[in-house]
Amino acid sequence: MHGADFLRDLAVIMLIAGATTVLFSRLRQPVVLGYILAGLIIGPHTPPYPLITNSHTIETLAEMGVVFLMFSLGLEFSLKKLREVGSTALVAALMEIVVMIWVGFEIGRFFGWRTMDSLFLGAMLAVSSTTIIVKALSELNLKRERFAQLVFGILIVEDILAIGLIALLSGIAVNGDINMATVGATLGKLGIFLVVSLTVGILVVPRLLAYVARFDNDEMLLVTVLGLCFGFCLMVIELGYSVALGAFVIGAIMAESRQLHLIERLIAPVRDMFSAIFFVAVGLMLDPRVLVDYWLPITVITVAVVLGKLVSCGTGAFLAGQSGRTSMRVGMGLAQIGEFSFIIAALGVSLKVTSDFLYPIAVAVSALTTLLTPYLIQSADPLSRRIGSTLPGWLTAVFGLYTRWLGSLQLSGDNALAAAIVQRCLLQILVNLCLVAGVFLGLAALFESGVLAFLPSPLDHKNVLWGAAMLLSLPFLVACYRKQKALGQMLAEMTVRGSAGRYPAAARQIIAELVPLLGIGIMLLVISAVSGSLLPPLETRLVVLGVAVVAVLLLSRQLIRLHSRLQIALQETLETPPDPLKPERHGHH
Amino acid sequence: MHGADFLRDLAVIMLIAGATTVLFSRLRQPVVLGYILAGLIIGPHTPPYPLITNSHTIETLAEMGVVFLMFSLGLEFSLKKLREVGSTALVAALMEIVVMIWVGFEIGRFFGWRTMDSLFLGAMLAVSSTTIIVKALSELNLKRERFAQLVFGILIVEDILAIGLIALLSGIAVNGDINMATVGATLGKLGIFLVVSLTVGILVVPRLLAYVARFDNDEMLLVTVLGLCFGFCLMVIELGYSVALGAFVIGAIMAESRQLHLIERLIAPVRDMFSAIFFVAVGLMLDPRVLVDYWLPITVITVAVVLGKLVSCGTGAFLAGQSGRTSMRVGMGLAQIGEFSFIIAALGVSLKVTSDFLYPIAVAVSALTTLLTPYLIQSADPLSRRIGSTLPGWLTAVFGLYTRWLGSLQLSGDNALAAAIVQRCLLQILVNLCLVAGVFLGLAALFESGVLAFLPSPLDHKNVLWGAAMLLSLPFLVACYRKQKALGQMLAEMTVRGSAGRYPAAARQIIAELVPLLGIGIMLLVISAVSGSLLPPLETRLVVLGVAVVAVLLLSRQLIRLHSRLQIALQETLETPPDPLKPERHGHH
């Protein structure tokens, strides 16, 4: 029968995965490890004979595993959680990623590998494994502890940074070397893409899902969710980013919908199926000979991962004000690599910039560190006690002093409130600028795609599009300006109040005027930077600007109302908690 | 990126499917129809340009759709329900299938098509669509009505008969013509396969699932279920049957497990995803030109499906004792074709025995009849009233007489009880004989596969295997004999009791002895028929038989105990209702 080969391969994989999941749960070992081992055993490199006839199709299915893994990760991510986790997670995650990339890169250089191999190795070691940590903490029954919350926070920040890392690596791999201007442009575009898709997505997607959910039909909701997920991934591929990024972002958008819990329940089986295939496929790609040949790097890297993550995350958490014991537990918990490393390794393979041995090394190190994870977590407490008792007294005193000093830095009262408002203002300005940039970049991409070439137009397409972009951006530009004005007044209040200057009113005036003026400059700069291929000649620009100014003067109230409506809608969505799951319907559909 | 083409295709399909499900629910039309239309629109035959680059991979995914559709159908099937539905469903389904195969075959001949095309057309028209009927009845809010229960019963019987039909068609297609001996052998082997796999499966699988369920981990249960499902499909493919059959049977086996509801909930999203792909892929395979060229056959076949099913199912239901109104509603409800027809059409394509136009015709007829289904169901009542009022009085009287006469045929009291016991005895004998046959056929297949050729053995492999088969069958043979003895005594009681013969005791004795003797003859016949390539020379057979008789005499109590233990275990599983779903766990895994 047609396609029987494929079904046979899939059947072998699912059968093996099923047996593995039972066996490894029974042995109390991580099932993920079992999948990889099972893949290795049935793989093409292992005697007696390969059980998989067409590994290409299986790799395609494994890619769907990446989509669903990242989508689920996105669903568990939430902007609200991110805010709660606060600065500790950011400090620790940044520390970890920078240190580990550097450690990985140096190890690669030490073994005489190529620059690109070393760079990808660094990236592979940077991010810890959410899957494995969540499983280990649940099995040890530690999920509700304080350090576990912190670990989850760090994982969320890591996920975002890893997304940036993936985009960055793709860019570097394509351009061949590390060019700071390119890196800056890549990160800038990524930032604009993330802000625009999150803002537009959170405005549109939860409303669409709420509409679909009214039909009260699980199949319909699932197919819609899958359609949105894959459709967004399609767009992201077209923009040159990876599927992993797309799946994560659309997951994060759907995390803000009220149907979140239902979506999670519906997507879980699909994810479990494809992630099983994904991990078995990881094992399939393993060549045991590479493991034997590269036993030394594997050992070195494994030790480096455990020590490096322990020290970097632990120090990060401690510097951000956590106690020594908590910091130690955080460091121990994060000391492994997992699915993200495979995704990055696969990226290198698919871009053809890394050597063949890198992937099996990543898998081997992940397997070893995964095995160690539960023991490391359990040994955190005894170890931190022993370290505490052997530390000289003066060092303990210094550490205590640092923690207290850090506590005293916290703003309180009026100052804290003012700082929060300024922060909020800056965030809103940034988001609005990103939206403006998104409009211009989007229309520029539309122009470059050549789709419009068929449309007749009395004017030049470029000019029309630039004018349209200007018009579409007006509400955001006006909002930007208003926020900048408010920010100017706030800053004037804050800086001048404390000073003993002779002309406080004048100084205040200057600051309050200067900030929005500076803002207009920035806005013009952003617009000309993102106009790209659309930028019309100077006279056209002046005409359009003139029209825009007149439009703002005439329509300012409408523009402000439109913008504030959008903003309120966005906030509503962000603030509405997801619905609890309804009790199960029992009947057969 | 590697596999991006595939992801793009999948993304287009899921996006289109998502939009379709919303649009068609909004329009209150069957979503299945929307999927097919969407597939047609994005398909390779439709301008402006094909959106799908690699339809091969999509077809492979669509095959997974068949697996999950049939598996779900199996889960909803249950031996218990089958017994409750009783004779009405059997009569109506048999009537429908025979009539529709004949109608389809004749239509094919009328249009001058080849014999094989006509035969497959008949098979395509034979089976109604569970998916479409269930959806239509839920939407019309008629699922709880009496005729709906009857319709579901007929669908269950149809599913079984269709499974046989698929096996039969494969056999005929391979052999090239219809040979009664081959058909008999095919059906016999299919029967043995079904009985053996259901018996062994129901003994083993629910216990395994109960073990896995104790870990209380949805992912583990799902992966195990998928492993069993695909593993069984793999075995079924090796035996030369279709995946559809395998998926249905393993579904029916799992339907007897206590975790049924949980399995249904876990498998639903996977099924929904792949069945969406399946139906879109059906549309992809449609060539609109064929539809235009074959408008006449399509119209004729559509009319034939509606009228043929209405008359055959309606008459079947009426003959089995239903009222005129219920019979009319049953006939109207079943008047369409669906997923099974596509599966049969795809079978013909993959076996390369049917012409290219058959598949699009099946899809077109299915689409038309699907569209008609809700209107037909709604028109059943008015139509049956009108027919009732125009019918001449004497005919109504005859119909009434028939219904009453049929009612009087029902056994009651002692007779009903005795008939039930005899029926049960016969069933048990049949199952045991099938198990014996399964043991012999299984070991014969093992011998023919040549796996054993590597094992050294002092005796001939054949003889050893035949002896082993004999030994393994002993418990079933003993049970068979005991049931035959019991049956003999029952029959003797029943037949002689009523008769006015002069030697009732002697007659009773003769019947009571003759039946088990006849039984032994049948058992020997079955054994020699299924021994196949294993059958050793006469002297070996006699020696083994002698050993077997001695073993039975020595171990009869142990054998009986073993068999009754197995039987009790089987009955326990069959009689334990599935657990209700536990209230949802809310936490993130």
Automatic annotation (TrEMBL), chains A, B:
InterPro entries from the UniProt entry: Cation/H_exchanger_TM (IPR006153), Na+/solute_symporter_sf (IPR038770)
Major subcellular location class: membrane
Keyword Heme: no
Domain of life where this protein originates: Bacteria
Family matches, as Gene3D superfamilies: 1.20.1530.20
Membrane topology qualifier: Multi-pass membrane protein
Domain Cation/H+ exchanger transmembrane: 13-376
Bilayer-spanning residue ranges: 6-24, 31-49, 61-79, 91-112, 118-138, 150-172, 192-213, 220-237, 273-292, 298-320, 332-351, 357-377, 429-452, 464-481, 510-530, 542-560
Locations listed in the record: Membrane
Keyword Membrane recorded: yes
Keywords tagged on the record: Membrane, Transmembrane, Transmembrane helix, Transport
Similarity comment text for this entry: Belongs to the monovalent cation:proton antiporter 2 (CPA2) transporter (TC 2.A.37) family.
Name of the featured protein: Cation:proton antiporter
Species lineage: Bacteria, Pseudomonadati, Pseudomonadota, Betaproteobacteria, Neisseriales
